[in-house]
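User: I'm putting together a teaching handout on how multi-component assemblies are represented. Below are the sequence lines for each component of a complex, exactly as they appear in our records. Could you produce the 3D structure of the whole assembly as structure tokens, so the students can see both representations side by side? Please keep the chain order the same as the input.
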Amino acid sequence: MIQIEYLLIVSAVMMFAGVFGFLTRRSTLAILLSVELMLNATDLNFAVFNRMLYPDGYEGYFFALFSIAISAAESAIAIAIMINIYRMIKNIQVDELEKMKW
Amino acid sequence: MESTILILLLPFFSFILLGVFGKWFSHKAAGLVGTAVLLAVAALSYATAYTYFFDTARTAEGVLPTLVPYNFEWLPFFVEGLSFDMGIMLDPISVMMLIVISTVSLMVHIYSFGYMHGERGFQRYYAFLSLFTMSMLGLVVATNIFQMYMFWELVGVSSYLLIGFYYTSPAAIAASKKAFIVTRFADMFFLIGILIYGYYCRSFGFEFNQAGFAQGAMMLPTALFLMFIGGAGKSAMFPLHIWLPDAMEGPTPVSALIHAATMVVAGVFQIARLFPLWIEYAPGALHVVAWVGAFTAFYAAAVACCQSDIKRVLAFSTISQIAFMMVSLGVCTEYTTGHEHVGSLGYMASMFHLFTHAMFKALLFLGAGCIIHAVHSNEMSAMGGLRKYMPITHITFLIACLAISGIPPFSGFFSKDEILTAAFAYMPAMGWIMTAIAAMTAFYMFRLYFGIFWGTENKELHAHHTPHEAPLTMTFPLMFLAVVTCVAGFIPFGHFVSADGVAYDIHLDWGVAGTSIVIAVASIFLATYMYIGERQPKADAMAEKFSKLHQWAYKRFYLDEVYQYITHRIIFAHVSKPIAWFDRHVVDGFFNFLAWGTNALSFQIRGFQSGSVQKYAYVFLLGTLALLAIMALA
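Assistant: Of course. Below is the structure of the complete assembly, with chains in the same order as your input.
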């Protein structure tokens, strides 16, 4: 039997890898990937808590499925935005993207 | 009696129809719609009156019952047990008012066909007339004082709209504003009075339940007197009369309908409506009303003697006659009728005079409209010698003048005689004052009559434009009202309207009647002597001799100037201006400071909005960690 802590450690590593990627990568596409990584960390948490703490229920799995669906939708929107940004500034590097300010 | 609701709804619909869709009506169609609706309203009113007075069983005490065909709760009130109801109530005075309003209004509708012919805004004019008729009818059939107040404001609005009908004339606009502001100012007191009344007596109704009134008896005189101030504004009692002479800027038929026959008697009607309360709980305040009325009657009669604009003369005579009705109500001392002493005679007399006055004063105004139509001026100097050109107007005007002067057998004699009898019964001094004012009435009316129809003809003006008799649409109402004026005095009015509702016979007190006839005839002779000739040396000499007095009376004793001074020099300059300064500099300044502060602060902090997404995320992360730390520590 795998201990719950091991699984949570994997999830935490994924989470903070995502956070680190989000803050440091310059490509918008890489930032999107980091977001996905964070979302997957939470999905993993849902599944782990359901499996380990409440084995009779299914809510955690369902939430994980919801979350996957929502993140798919969100990626679609994010990519659409990126395409638009690319059309405007011929680039998708965030440090070049400074139009959205006062 | 269920059909009474139509009396209110029909004019309302015609108002909507003509007001909203009037643009697509021809003048003729709009006039016909308005007149046809009024014809139906008049027919319904007469049918209601007939059914009410002749086919309704009296109660065991011989009192005409009060019928309430409709009454429903419209809005609950913030005080427990009070509500704002709407409905229709029929009792002797409201049925009597239905007849007066629908008759005069119908005549004015017919008359306006001729008078307003080809006028711009003809449809709008008829729409407003319908609105006024609806509101006035609603006022008299109100089941409670709040409904009365609502319709009271509506007649004020329609009066405002109609005075300002010629909206391109600055004088008309000023007059309509003045009328609205003065009456609104008075209505504020009316509203306060209603609220006090409702709060202390737990009722807005007219059924006067005794338990509620005993507990509120202490505040009743105050409440009633405040309501009277509202009534004094509408009925042009001194010192709130200043709007009525100016209101003559409106079209003449409007003056006949609103500012002579119906709306201006609303104040009298209001006191009559609450009469049981006045007589029971506030007899002292009631006598104050009588003295206010007596002074107003005297003042207006004095001013009327010196005016040269014929509509102004009629306006002041209206003020004076309404004051007669007020006096008549004010001199009442008891509620039950049929006694040896006539303590409640004044109530009947007042309503009787209201009825007869509405007819002959509408006649006078419509006659004046014909004259103005013929010579295109309001000034007496443009008139003179018109009897040859306008025979019908001349005869009907003469009948009305005789009626208002109190010459039998015309209607004014009978009602005025009852008022004088009531005044004498209250206090001989009051009786003599009112008799003297009646004499002044006869004098100024005949001064007006001779000035218009006799005297020097303005040859220059008439050669340019020969005066001619008005068309039939205008002369028919004159003839109809003249017939009413001739016969109305013989109505046994006491059988229909009396203070407690018991029928009784009117007895002419020949001592009073004889005196008043003699004095009226003497005044008429004096007026004839002074004003019939080609020139008026006597009158001019009098005016010369008392030039100061004449000047003062001509200028209406400078009351408008006093108002002007008080409002502009004192209130505007010393109250409004500092308040305006405070508003502009302190109140506005505070809010401007807030706006400026916010603006300045946002300029300072806008650097945070760098546009770099990762910085935001970084700040967000730090914030989350800080929150976590706080929660972990706590």
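A couple of points students might notice: Chain A touches chain B at residues 19, 22-24, 31, 94-95, 97-102 (CB under 8 Å). Chain A has three helices and no strands.
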